[in-house]
């Protein structure tokens, strides 16, 4: 029997629905994973009541690009992303990545997922392309294990790198796979985990890492298999590789994707800060989305996406944290704030900045569309009960509460939320991950990080653990 919950007397409920409705002093009735009704003075004697006095309620944030395996390569002055060129950074960071094993995957994923959950994220996509001799083919399985433990809705991107250094890639030999290896494991993962039904907690995405580090056939076969199975596709694009693509294939990255067929409503790209205004229309026409990752864009000194112009052209923009090696944070609330500030700076002279509320919809409604989830992204009857709450009865928020839609990004609400609920279950509340021995997991994660990655590594030399 489904458990009923009644969230009672929320100060405001920001629905992010098609009418941008905000419910004041209202309730949410939930049955199992599903929202049944929103409005004032709701009653149901069979429901467990959750008091939400003084709370603002928002749809759960949806992260559309990340690399969980990078979470144990953070806060390193020895590999300082802001002070390096991308090529230099890649050369140094891959020396560490190739040591990653199954235990690092599990505990680094738990770390990133916990950070996401504590900051209001209820559905996360991760681009897992790190397959080493030590990790084997287990990374996605370990991530599914971690997501189930924490209660997070998880879309796993099964990535790969197939092109060797001798043919122009940046990937060490012991992190390469063949296209056949990759396809065989994609089939295994899809048949084991992919659930296309409403309120699904796990899905698989086929996601070769990027065009310059894979054979063209890897992408062609991805298109064939993904469309046979009805799963989505993802890759890095427009992230500094266009000159290489022009030299290698005599065409820009988007042209190459179009020729290969790696484009359409079932495809989205990460970053794309090299996208040209004349390419906006093509992205919109095909329905391919772009995951904007503001943290690494600022840290790397990359061009700022013109989100207003892209959205005006009809391009679907969502929000991602990106990997912790280039962000050092898995807080999507922080990314929301940074993205809004970037757009304000970028468009100041010509006007038309994306509002703080529109940026919230980028991280909710647009994230759901990007992942193909009609059941997520807004708070309304029939949608999944994925939400988070903040406590407004705090002195630092005094004077801001008249506009809950703009509040988060505009005023910089980036700390841990009061509650996160996923699929109708509370998974984090008042500083605690529900049903989790966080201290024990943190201690074990530190031990794994030190044993596997820090030992005998130049990147960690001179530090005390």
From TrEMBL:
Does the record's keyword annotation contain Hydrolase? yes
* Domain Amidohydrolase-related span(s) in chain numbering: 56-427
Q: List where this protein forms a coiled coil.
A: none
Query: What InterPro entries does this protein's entry cite?
Result: Amidohydro-rel, Metal-dep_hydrolase_composite, Metal_Hydrolase, MTA/SAH_deaminase
- So which residues are the signal peptide here? none
SUPFAM superfamilies the UniProt entry points to: Composite domain of metallo-dependent hydrolases (SSF51338), Metallo-dependent hydrolases (SSF51556)
Instruction: Give the keywords, sorted.
Output: Hydrolase
Domain of life (superkingdom): Bacteria
**In its UniProt entry, what is this protein called?**
Amidohydrolase
What organism does the record attribute this protein to?
Diplocloster modestus
- Upper lineage ranks? Bacteria, Bacillati, Bacillota, Clostridia, Lachnospirales
């Amino acid at each position: 029997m489904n458990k009923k919950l009644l969230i009672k007397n929320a100060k405001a409920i920001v629905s992010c629905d098609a009418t941008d409705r905000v419910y004041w002093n209202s309730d949410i009735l939930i049955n199992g994973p599903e929202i049944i009704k929103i409005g004032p003075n709701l009653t149901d004697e069979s429901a467990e009541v959750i008091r939400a006095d003084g709370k603002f309620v928002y749809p759960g944030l949806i992260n559309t690009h990340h690399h969980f395996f990078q979470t144990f390569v953070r806060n390193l002055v020895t590999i300082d992303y802001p002070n390096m060129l991308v090529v230099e950074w890649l050369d140094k960071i891959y020396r560490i990545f190739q040591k990653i094993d199954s235990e690092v995957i599990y505990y680094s994923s738990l770390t990133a997922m916990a950070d996401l959950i504590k900051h209001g994220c209820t559905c996360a996509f991760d681009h897992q392309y790190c397959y080493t001799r030590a990790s084997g083919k287990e990374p996605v399985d370990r991530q599914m294990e971690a997501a189930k433990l924490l209660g997070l809705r998880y879309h796993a991107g099964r990535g790969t790198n197939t092109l060797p250094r001798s043919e122009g890639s940046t990937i060490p030999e012991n992190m390469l796979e063949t296209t056949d290896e990759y396809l065989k494991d994609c089939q295994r993962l899809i048949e084991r985990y992919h659930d296309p039904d409403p309120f699904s907690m796990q899905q698989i995405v086929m996601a070769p890492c990027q065009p310059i580090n894979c054979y063209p056939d890897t992408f062609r076969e991805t298109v064939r298999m993904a469309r046979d199975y009805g799963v989505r596709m993802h890759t890095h694009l427009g992230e500094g590789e266009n000159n290489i693509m022009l030299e290698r294939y005599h065409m820009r990255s988007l042209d190459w994707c179009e020729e290969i067929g790696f484009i359409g409503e079932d495809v989205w790209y990460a970053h794309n800060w090299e996208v040209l205004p004349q390419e906006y229309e093509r992205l919109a026409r095909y329905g391919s989305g772009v995951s904007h990752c503001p943290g690494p864009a600022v840290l790397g000194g990359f061009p700022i996406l013109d989100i207003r112009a892209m959205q005006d052209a009809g391009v679907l923009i969502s929000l991602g944290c990106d990997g912790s090696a280039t962000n050092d944070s898995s807080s999507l609330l922080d990314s929301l704030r940074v993205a809004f500030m970037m757009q304000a700076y970028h468009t100041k002279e010509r006007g038309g900045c994306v509002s703080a509320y529109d940026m919230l919809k980028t991280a909710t409604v647009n994230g759901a569309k990007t992942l193909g989830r009609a059941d997520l992204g807004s708070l309304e009857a029939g949608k999944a009960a994925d939400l988070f709450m903040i406590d407004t009865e705090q002195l630092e928020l005094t004077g801001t509460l008249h506009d809950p839609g703009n509040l988060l990004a505009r005023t910089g609400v980036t700390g841990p939320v009061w509650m996160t609920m996923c699929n109708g279950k509370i998974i984090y509340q008042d500083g605690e991950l529900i049903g989790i021995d966080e201290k024990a997991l943190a201690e074990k994660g530190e031990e794994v990080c030190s044993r596997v990655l820090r030992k005998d590594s130049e990147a960690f030399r001179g530090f005390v653990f």
